[in-house]
Structures are given as C-alpha cells and as structure tokens.
Design a protein that fits this description.
The protein is of the alpha+beta class. It has 20 helices and 12 strands. The strands form 4 sheets. The protein has a 4-stranded mixed beta sheet with strand order 3-5-9-4. Strands 6-12-10-11 form a 4-stranded mixed beta sheet. Strand 10 and strand 11 (about 550-555) form a beta hairpin. Helix 13 packs antiparallel against helix 15 (about 340-370) and helix 15 packs antiparallel against helix 19 (about 440-455). It is flat, with a radius of gyration of 35 Å. The two termini are about 65 Å apart. The model is unreliable at about 1-55 and about 300-305 (pLDDT under 50).
C-alpha cells in the first residue's frame, strides 16, 4: 500500500520487519542512521495510522496473511508476481475505466480462427479428455466425432463467403458440437446399430438447426450431414476433396493428422467453386473502398467540388426522369375482365409512378436549395450526401425495388423498367419476352402464369407449380410470345453455369462469376403431373444478398446429384453488381 501511496518506483526491496527497540524519542538519529528499509517501515506505519487502522486491526491483518501462507490450497509454485501488480479483466466495454489506464494497459482479444484447419483444431480440442474411452463402440465413436468436428468447422468458416455461404449469419458455437457428441454417445450405447437418420435429424434439425431461420439454409445443413454423417466415413471416405476420414487414433494422433493432412485453404473444401473466393475478396474490397469514400474530405474527385458534382448528377437525372403513366387512361382501355398478367403490369405502373413522383419532388427541392431559394433541410442534406457518394437515397429506396446497385446503374435500371411498361401500354398485351428482373414484384408475374393456367383448365391454384424449360435462344431470337406461360429473360446464375449445348447445369468457368441464362419458357402444371427426378430445385433471389429477396424456386436439369449444387450455393439472381 505504501508504494502506491507514495508512488515509489518498482525495484525497491521490501522493508525488513520493524525491530522492537526502535522508539519515537530518537527521530533525528533515525533519519541519519536508520537504513532505508527501516525508514520505509516507519513511513508505512504512519500511513496506516493516518487511515485510522489501530494496532489490533494491523495484527489481525498480519494474522490473516500468515494463515493464507500456511494454507496449502493457496500456495503457489514457481515465480510469483510483484506485490504491487494488479490485473483487471473485463469481457465487456465500460465507460467507467479511466482512459489513461486503458492507454497504458495491454489489450487482449480472442479472435475467431481463420481457415478450415484452425477451426478444425479448435473444434477437436474440446475433446482432449477422449470421451470415447467409455464407449463400447470406440471405433465408430471416433470416426463420427471427427466428422462432426469437420462439419462444425465447415459451417462456421463458410460464413466468410457471405450470402453464397449462408443466406443469413448464425451463431454456431462449440456448445452445439459438444452437445451433439453427448447425444452421439447415448445413441451408440442404446442402439445395436448406428441410427444414421436419427443422428442427422437431431444434429441438423435440433442442435445446429435450432439456430437456422432460413429454409434454404436448413436444406444446406441437411445436405452437409447427408454427406458427412453416413456409413462411408467409417471406412475412410473423403470428408472433402483430398481429405479422407482418418483411421481411429488417439487424441494426439488426430491433432497430428489435422496438422499434416489438411489441404490448403480453398472454397473447394466447403463444396464451393473457386470463383467464390473472388466474390468474397471483391466484396471485402468494395466495402473497404466504399468506407474510405464516405470518410474522405469534401475536396472532391477529378478536380470538382461536391456541389458541382451533385449539380451535374441532379441535372442528368431530372432531365431523364420518365413521365408518369396515365393510370386512368390505361384502366379505361383495359377490359373489365383483365387477365392476371394485365393486373400485374398495371400494378407495376402504379408503383413506378409512386417512385418517380417522390424522386421528382425531392430533386426539385434540392435544386432550389442549391440555388439558395430554399434553406437546406436535414432531408435535403441527406439527399445531397447520397448523390455525392453515388448511393440510392433511402427515401427513394423505401418505395423502390430491391437493389444493391450504385445510383448510376440503379437509375439506368429504372429507365429500362419503364421502357418495358411503355411497351405494354402500347397494345396492353404481354411482351414476347418478359424481362422478369424489371418487375417490382416478380413473384406476382410468376403467380399470374399459374393463375392463367388454373383458370383455363379448371385446376386448383394451390395445386399448381411452375415448370421451367431453358431454351437455346437469346432475347433477340424470339419471334412470338409463348403459347402457354411466358418467355422469361433477365436471370443470372451464381455458383455454376448453364450449358446450352448439354442443356444442364455445369461447373462455372474460372472468373465467370454471374453467367446470364438464355430465354426460359416458364409454364404451369399441377404438382401431380410434374416429375422432379434429375432436377435441381434452384432458388431465385432478387439480389446477391439473397435472404429476404427470395422470389421462387425453379427446377433445372442436372446430370449429377442435386446435393452438389445445394452445397455449392447455386442460385439464380435477378440483379447483380459485378
């Protein structure tokens, strides 16, 4: 305590115990002749007296220290820390710690492991006690446990690939893994044969599946377990390309096997195409540069300041903004008995009008603000900043279609959507080829296809499904509308590509991230008449972010097991940013 009060430097030896013959009658002699240690002891006594500690309390504290030294449970072996050393541990941020202490402190963080090997090691070290020792089926226990550790490492690290890895982010943790192993031990002891189906259900639907909220992520988890929790792993089957399941070993041998045999980090280890690495790194770079762009000063780019750049964009947008659709005229021209497709196109005109009106009003206000005719309101300043950063203003996005494009390409897409509606309003007939990616609500148009077929053949709508036929033609090669259903265009594939010659899904070509599909003919049939054998149920999303942008499921031909494309994260996208 004395050192902390007087601020003495470290390295001063501890004072020896005060002798009984020292008295208060000789203070001057002690100052001249008493050793440093004895002077420190006297100072310490004075400090304690100043705190109001009497001799009895001091003696009691000394007795407690002696008792601690005699307690064998409190004894420490090896070097001890300095008596003045203090350590403060905190697992959460606190505003009560003085900033000076934080600046002089050593900060420790526990970063999650990076890469499959590090995650696999971290998963397996949870079983250093070798829980298989008490099992009557040790060989099976070891093999399934190692496969579960690999499964855990894959599902945790797969998150780095963004939406292609998982539609949503989930808090998978080591507790899920250890609980699965406890369940595994009980099942192996209670059943004469390994209940593979039961294990996969418990692992995929309860333990790990308890975190999963997206239906397609649940399908992905199930397919991983179909591959990793099965009888072939008992015979040394591959857990991933180039990484077979190891033979039953000891704990240390397993760690050595992981260290020496895990393949180099690659998307292939997770069942993804190597292009997924390009996507992952590109998204990282885009986020970095976008952040830098938002933080940079207002010095401007290319030698022009903010106001001039915003003025230029404002003039371009206002000069190209389309006119409102005359909804009253369109409604009068449409027959009372409208087709489902006509309803959809009319609703699209309504939604585009709402967006254009909001854009025109906000841009007109900003124009007046830049001219000085109006004072700049907070909303106008936000619009100004978004235009300068090439972002779609939030006030526009609230009534617009889902998109992650920058403002320039977003506005061009708006003009393309308007042109498709103008083509419809000329004859009020469905175009020869419908660009489904130009709809605010593409699912409404696909539902209209099912409604039309159901009304024509007197089917129940809830028993209808979509049937997809991918043609070998592009949009400029289509001469007439489809006899049934509709010709649809405007979809991109991520994770694979469509082979027009073989008319099936194939592996992507390197650096070809989003190959465009040719024209597709989409029809509708009753579910009972559709054979889904050798078909991959491919989800369709509005943007690369997937998740909430889910539209519909289309079945595409495949010559390999559909599980390959599920694990590969293959999906169709309506809008991409490369």
């Amino acid at each position: 305590y004395q050192r902390r009060v007087h601020g003495e430097q470290e390295g001063v030896e501890d004072p020896p115990e005060e002798t009984a013959d020292q008295t208060e009658e000789e203070p001057a002699a002690q100052e001249e002749e008493t050793p440093v240690g004895e002077g420190d002891a006297a100072a310490e006594e004075a400090d304690l007296d100043g705190l109001g500690l009497d001799d009895e309390e001091e003696a009691q504290g000394a007795d407690e220290e002696d008792d601690d030294d005699d307690d064998p449970e409190l004894q420490m072996e090896g070097p001890k820390g300095h008596v003045d050393f203090r350590v403060f541990l905190s697992a959460e941020p606190s505003v009560n710690i003085p900033i000076g202490i934080l600046q002089r402190s050593i900060k420790l963080t526990n970063e999650p492991p990076q890469g499959l090997k590090a995650n696999l090691v971290r998963a397996f070290v949870n079983f250093s006690t070798e829980p298989w020792e008490n099992s009557s089926k040790q060989q099976e226990f070891k093999s399934i446990l190692f496969s579960l550790c690999f499964f855990h490492a894959v599902v945790v690290e797969r998150k780095k690939f963004g939406a292609q890895g998982w539609n949503r982010s989930y808090p998978f943790n080591p507790g899920d893994l250890t609980t699965c192993v406890d369940v595994l031990a009980n099942y192996l002891e209670d059943r004469p044969k390994i209940p593979w189906d039961d294990l996969r259900y418990v692992f995929g639907e309860i333990m790990y599946g308890g975190h999963i909220t997206d239906d397609w992520d649940r399908v992905l988890c199930k397919n991983y377990l179909l591959y990793l929790v099965q009888s072939e792993i008992l015979e040394g089957g591959d857990l991933c390309p180039g990484f077979p399941s190891p033979p039953p070993s000891t704990y240390k041998d397993y760690l050595t096997y992981i260290e020496e045999n895990t393949p180099p980090e690659s998307p292939v280890l997770y069942g993804l195409h190597p292009n997924a690495e390009i996507n992952f790194r590109t998204l990282q770079g885009d986020h970095l540069f976008r952040t830098i762009n938002e933080l940079q000063s207002s010095a401007g780019a290319a030698g022009i300041n903010e106001a001039e750049k915003v003025r230029q964009v404002l003039d371009d947008v206002m000069g190209s903004l389309p006119e409102d659709h005359n909804l009253q005229e369109i409604a009068e021209r449409l027959e009372d008995d409208r087709t489902p497709a006509q309803h959809v196109f009319y609703q699209e005109c309504e939604r585009l009008n709402i967006l254009v009106v909001r854009m025109r009003k906000s841009l007109a206000d900003l124009d007046l603000g830049l001219k000085g005719a109006l004072s700049m309101s907070p909303q106008m300043q936000i619009l100004f900043d978004d235009i300068f950063l090439d972002k779609v203003p939030e006030s526009w996005a609230d009534v617009a279609y889902m998109s992650i494009s920058p403002l320039g390409s977003w506005f061009q897409n708006l003009l393309d959507r308007n042109q498709q509606l103008l083509d419809f309003t000329q004859e009020l007939q469905q175009p020869k080829v419908v660009i489904v990616s130009h709809f605010f609500n593409p699912n409404a148009f696909l539902t209209a296809i099912m409604q039309t077929t159901a009304m024509a053949y007197n089917y129940d709508l809830d028993q209808m499904t979509l049937v997809t036929e991918v043609t070998k033609k592009w949009i400029d090669q289509i001469d007439a509308p489809a006899r049934e259903g509709a010709h649809v265009f405007g979809m991109f594939m991520e994770g694979a590509r469509w082979d027009m010659a073989a008319t099936t899904i194939e592996e992507s070509k390197m650096k070809e991230l989003y190959p465009k599909l040719p024209v597709m003919t989409i029809k509708s049939l009753p579910v009972s008449k559709v054979d889904t054998k050798d078909l991959y149920a491919c989800p369709v999303y509005k943007t690369q972010e997937r998740g909430p942008g889910y539209v519909v499921t289309l079945h595409l031909k495949t010559k390999v097991l559909a599980r390959k494309w599920v694990i590969g994260g293959v999906a169709l996208l309506l809008d991409v940013v490369e």
